[in-house]
Write a structure and sequence with these properties.
alpha+beta; Alpha-Beta Plaits; 4-stranded antiparallel beta sheet; 10 helices; globular
C-alpha cells in the first residue's frame, strides 16, 4: 500500500470500531527520537479524521526535517483523544506471532513499527477511561509480553506512512479484522484487581460504584498517595489539589491525572461540561505545580 493508503486504512479502522460514531477524535504526537520526547500541541489535539488529513503535509515535513527549533527528523504518533472515552487497547513491541496470539478472533489492527516489532490495537467491549485502559493493558502485557513502559492510558501509537526515525524504517499497516467479538473490558478489570494493579480515581470497578462511594473511593486513593499534602478541612477541592500535587511529587503520569480529575469534577457537578471540567483540572494541576517548583508550559 502507498503511505497515504496505509494512513487511511488505520483511520478507517479506528473510525469503524469506535463507539463514538463520526465524532471520533484523535491526538497527534510529534516525537524527538533522540531524546524520546513528545510534543503535545493545542492544534494537534481532538482532531477529527478530516482535520488530521489536512495536516498531513505538516506531519510529512516534521518527519523529514523536524519542526520549529528542532531541526532533525521527528516521529509521528496517533492516539485516541485523551480527554474522551476510548474504544481501544494498544500493546507495543510485539512480534507478529505474539500480536496474532493476543488478538485471536477479536476485532483488531496490527501496525509494524520496525523490523520484527508491532503495535496491536484491540477494540473493547465498551467505552473505557484512560485509567481503565491502563489497567487492562497491564494485564495483557504481563500475560503476553510487549513493552511494559507503554501501558499508560494515554500512550501513542505510530501513524503508518511515516518513518520510524530511530530504526530508519517505514511504519506499515499490516492487517485488521472487524468481527462481533471484542476485548472484554470487565473481565480484564477483574483480573487487574486480583493482580493488584492500582486503578486511579474513576478507573475500573470504582467508576461503577454509587456516587457517594465514588467520592469516598477517590478520597481514599488520594490519602494513600498524597497524605502529606491534604489541606486542613479535607473538603473536595483539597482532596483534588492533593491528588494533583502528589502526581508531581511522586512523578506520576500528569495527563492520566488531569483526565481522571476532569471526569470526577464533571461527575460531582463541579463543572457542567467536560471542557470546563478539564480546564478546572488543568488549573488545579498548574497550581499544584507551582508549589512543587515544576515548570508548566
Amino acid at each position: 500500500m502507498k503511505p497515504e493508503q496505509q494512513r487511511q486504512a488505520m483511520l478507517d479502522w479506528l473510525m469503524a470500531t469506535s463507539r463514538l460514531g463520526t465524532d471520533t477524535r484523535f491526538d497527534i504526537g510529534i516525537g524527538d527520537a533522540n531524546k524520546a520526547l513528545y510534543f503535545r500541541r493545542s492544534g494537534l489535539s481532538r482532531l477529527r479524521s478530516l482535520d488530521l488529513q489536512m495536516r498531513i503535509p505538516f506531519f510529512k515535513a516534521a518527519n523529514i526535517s523536524g519542526v520549529g527549533q528542532v531541526s532533525r527528523p521527528l516521529n509521528i504518533y496517533v492516539c485516541a483523544a485523551v480527554t474522551e472515552p476510548q474504544s481501544w487497547l494498544m500493546m507495543d513491541d510485539l512480534t507478529l506471532n505474539q500480536s496474532r496470539r493476543v488478538a485471536g478472533e477479536r476485532t483488531h489492527m496490527i501496525i509494524q513499527t520496525s523490523p520484527g516489532l508491532h503495535h496491536l490495537w484491540l477494540a473493547t467491549s465498551r467505552l473505557i477511561s484512560i485509567a481503565e485502559r491502563k489497567a487492562c493493558q497491564q494485564v495483557l502485557q504481563q500475560r503476553y509480553g510487549g513493552d511494559a513502559a507503554s501501558v499508560s492510558g494515554d500512550h501513542f501509537g505510530r501513524l503508518p506512512g511515516f518513518k520510524n526515525i530511530k530504526r530508519g524504517k517505514w511504519v506499515n499497516f499490516v492487517d485488521s479484522k472487524i468481527v462481533d467479538r471484542r476485548a472484554d473490558v470487565d473481565v480484564l478489570l477483574e483480573l487487574a484487581e486480583k493482580q493488584g494493579f492500582i486503578l486511579p480515581p474513576l478507573g475500573g470497578v470504582v467508576s461503577a460504584q454509587p456516587q457517594a462511594n465514588l467520592h469516598n473511593a477517590f478520597a481514599s486513593r488520594v490519602r494513600s498517595i498524597a497524605k502529606p499534602f491534604i489541606a486542613t478541612g479535607r473538603n473536595e477541592s483539597s482532596f483534588e489539589y492533593a491528588y494533583a500535587r502528589a502526581h508531581y511529587e511522586k512523578n506520576l503520569t500528569i495527563e492520566d491525572g488531569i483526565a481522571n480529575l476532569a471526569q470526577r469534577a464533571l461527575d460531582r457537578g463541579k463543572r457542567k461540561t467536560y471542557a470546563a471540567a478539564e480546564n478546572y483540572a488543568r488549573l488545579t494541576f498548574a497550581h499544584a505545580a507551582t508549589r512543587c517548583s515544576v515548570k508548566v508550559s
